[in-house]
Fold this protein.
Amino acid sequence: MAIKQKGTYALLAILLLTAMSVGMSVNGYPAGGAQQGAGEDWAKDSIAHGCSCHMDEQLDEGMYMLNGIPSKYIPDNTYNISLVINDTNVISDPEATRHGGFLAEVSEGTFETNELFWIGDGGTYISHNDDSNSQRNWTFQWTAPSDGAGDALFTIYFNVVNGVGTNGDQWGYISAVSIGTPQVVSEETSIHELGVSLMQYWIALLAMAVVFVMVLVAYVVIRGGSSHYRG
């Protein structure tokens, strides 16, 4: 059986973790995806386009740690993923009740939820909620996809906040990949995938039918003439 692995992620096959800085930021809702007006639309738009809620530009001054994403996952296995963003550059106000938040997306497999997190799109997205924005470290679970699903790409945004407005806050962006078993591609190829249109298909069948009828008529005529000659 033929197999194919996603070309987009193949170049990352030797990496456990890839961190990139990009010119985007994400909406820092205090309750994450659970906040009214947020939800899956917020998560999808934030991952795709970003915004400038806390800062217009990423400062790249913070420290973070991401642990638990396997370099190569075991299908259907569940992993504990830890994100730590205890950034000493952002000092929280002593009376602040909020210290940070995050939003993550995964291309394969599903995030698992509990009372500390919001889950969207059946486990494609995960974020903090109102019960977990008073901290700067989170441990959540991800269940790997079944065999033959390909690589899992993680996209994670995080905000480090001082709790007294958006001035002085920082945000960051991490991308990581976990190598999976190659996607299975069927050996069967439909006639449409070969570039043959439905009209061309029926014209070909009609032509074959016409040829068959002509051969049959020729056979009958020749056989009839031969019998008459033998008389």
